UniProtKB/TrEMBL annotation:
Coiled coil: none annotated. Residues 78-90, 97-109 have a biased composition (Low complexity). It comes from the Bacteria. This is Beta-propeller domain-containing protein.
């Protein structure tokens, strides 16, 4: 591992010059699609900097264009803000990410077990519980616990650093005897004043902590990485983990108030931008191992920016080999907002939706353009190796992105589902296929006109087939044939009441949908789990409805468990009155039937997993073990 000095002297990333277009419409494109695609293409030529002076000048100019009397529009607004068969590819889309085996695993074979429900097989995602089949590792209420699954006992506990964050935001990744615990945090922000970085005495700002924990004995922290910025997401392939965070300039902005007009505040903030040193912009992080502490910044040559962009946020990707440690983070950064992270074994995509903002004089920096024209910018990084990501290409498409499931890479192309003009009664959704052309992601085909007047509620791509659910009053489930990237087409549509917020392949040409039943007027009525036959024209074979309930699965796919061997399906549920439990269903043939419910004392169940013939449910208060077949209780482990 190199020293900080060596890192600062690394050569620049080799980035190709690119000019992106908003995309063209294939034969499946509708009138709505053609209109949306005619919007002016954003300037997206990505530029790398080898000279820190040039980088600082560019960053200052970008910020000066958009800064307003209340700060920057994308983050720092002064003191107030510093603070399955039959389905092509179904086996690879089960959503399981195997946890790498610990050394010596062959000597003690782990029983068959489930893993975190993830988007892409083999690419793990952070969650509050992990298992390798022999032990269960959880993080909850400020503690990491290790449970022996066979003995059903807690074998290790680690008290985590106290953080000021949303309850239940802790996550972890696991590789053998090493775990990375991710702790989003807020603290007193750091600002630049008179070219000196000092603590802002007022509000808090985002901070990310990563703890590398050794699990070979009693859990212990090996090293800690603390970054000034907002944690976005992470992905893991084998022992290699990549963590993405977003930082904003650390500048002491003023704000308009009764004794300071917007004109004066704007002038002062522009001057603050012109004075801000490079240290106020470059993402920084601190690594602590034992008594050794290093404060590091991303080198200038590892920062790139879309030409013409006025973004001031910086997205950084840190790369770690869990076996080697987190001392060398191998950072790579792009000046862009970035919110959604999607990863495969060879690609990492970071995307963000720009809703359209107008820079300018007092009071205009935060106001939307009339009418707003939303677009989604997408950056692809090559992560096929074990080193830092290598920038590959960028693209832009009209519309807004729902979540990572609206992105899918297949045979070297990226499928993207977006909704244009949501919320004004004229919305429509489109699926586009993007192909890499040098350093560009170009639209090579599209199919639009999906759910007119509605917006996307869920998306699932499985092999060459896509499934899109839109909703306003009824739920059209669309099936898409994407075998010809240049001519994607709609092959089926099913209209039913309610909607599916999450879609999951269930084998034999079946698709599970989890969401809400609704009245004909669109009023939600409670949990609905549907089983669809999608071998031809989609049809619903069976449904289970539980009135006045909802499930975390609707907005977090990690909360969903499907065990193909038995058809066991488990989702956490919450009643409209506030009670919580886990609902276990059985999917067999053409039917979805209720198996039963599991409860934890005074706590909401968050996750479930299978090890051998045991179903484990996880909450903040403990773990409960039940038989997979009939839910007969086997153990309760209190935390």
């Amino acid at each position: 591992m190199g020293s900080p000095g060596r890192r600062l002297s690394w050569s620049a990333l080799t980035l190709s010059v690119l000019v992106l277009v908003a995309g063209c419409s294939g034969e499946g494109g509708s009138k709505t699609e053609a209109t949306a695609s005619s919007a002016p293409a954003p300037p997206m030529r990505l530029v790398a900097y080898t000279d820190c002076t040039e980088l600082l000048s560019r960053l200052r100019k970008s910020a000066e264009k958009v800064v307003g009397p209340y700060g920057l529009p994308d983050g720092n607004q002064g003191r107030a803000a510093l603070a399955g068969r039959g389905l092509p590819g179904a086996e690879s889309a089960r959503g399981d990410a195997a946890v790498p085996e610990a050394p010596g695993a062959a000597a003690k074979q782990a029983p068959e077990h489930s893993s975190t429900n993830v988007h892409e097989a083999g690419v793990d995602e952070p969650d509050l519980v992990k298992t390798d089949g022999r032990r269960i590792v959880t993080v909850a209420r400020g503690r990491l616990r290790v449970v022996d699954a066979a003995d059903r006992k807690v074998t290790g506990t680690l008290t985590l650093p106290e953080v000021n964050s949303q309850v239940g935001s802790e996550n972890l990744l696991l590789a053998g005897d090493r775990a990375i615990v991710i702790l989003p945090d807020h603290r007193l922000g750091m600002i630049q004043r008179d070219n000196v970085e000092v603590a802002d005495p007022a509000p808090t700002g985002p901070r990310m902590r990563l703890l590398l924990v050794d699990l070979s004995g009693e859990p212990r922290v090996v090293s800690t990485l603390t970054a000034d910025g907002e944690y976005l997401d992470a992905r893991q392939t084998g022992p290699t983990a990549r963590v993405v965070f977003r930082s904003t300039p650390r500048i002491d902005f003023t704000q308009a108030r009764p004794d300071r007009s917007e004109v004066d505040a704007l002038a002062e903030n522009r001057q603050a931008v012109r004075r801000a040193p490079l240290e106020a912009w470059l993402p920084s992080y601190e690594v602590t191992t034992g008594t050794n502490r290093q404060r590091l910044r991303v080198p200038c040559e590892r920062v790139s920016q879309p030409a013409g962009s006025t973004d001031t946020s910086i997205i950084s990707v840190l790369t770690f080999d869990l076996g080697a440690g987190i001392n060398d983070a191998d950072p790579v950064s792009v000046v862009t907002k970035g919110r959604t992270v999607y990863g495969t074994g060879s690609s990492l995509y970071v995307s963000d939706t720009d809703y359209g903002t107008a820079p300018g004089g007092p009071g205009t920096a935060m106001k939307p353009v009339e009418p707003p024209v939303a677009r989604t910018d997408i950056h692809r990084f090559d992560v096929s190796g074990t080193g830092p990501p290598r920038y590959a290409a960028s693209g832009s498409v009209p519309g807004t992105l729902l979540n990572q499931y609206a992105l899918s890479e297949y045979e070297g192309r990226l499928r993207v589902a977006t909704t244009s003009d949501p919320g004004n009664g004229r919305s429509s959704s489109t699926v586009r296929v993007l192909a890499q052309n040098g350093a560009r992601l170009d639209v090579v085909g599209s199919v639009g006109g999906l759910g007119k007047g509605e917006r996307i509620y869920s998306v699932r791509f499985i092999g060459p087939t896509g499934y899109v659910v839109t909703f306003r009053q009824v739920d059209p489930l669309y099936t898409l044939d994407l075998r010809d990237p240049a001519r994607p087409k709609v092959t089926g549509e099913l209209k039913i009441t309610g909607y599916s917020a999450y879609l999951h392949p269930a084998g034999d040409g079946r698709l599970l949908g989890v969401g809400q039943e609704a009245s004909g007027e669109g009023r939600t009525l409670g949990l609905q789990v549907s089983l669809f036959d999608v071998t031809g024209q989609p049809k619903r074979l069976s449904r289970f409805h539980l009135p006045d309930t909802s499930t975390e699965t609707e907005f977090d796919a990690h909360a969903f468990l499907y065990w193909p061997r038995t058809g066991l399906t488990v989702v956490p549920i919450t009643t409209y009155q506030g009670g919580g439990s886990a609902l276990a269903l059985r999917v067999t043939g053409d039917r979805v039937t209720r198996l039963g419910t599991i409860e934890h004392p005074r706590s909401q169940i968050r996750r479930s997993l299978v090890i051998g013939d045991t179903l484990w449910t996880v909450s903040d208060t403990g773990l409960r073990a039940n038989a997979v077949t009939d839910l007969d209780e086997r153990a309760w482990i209190r935390f």
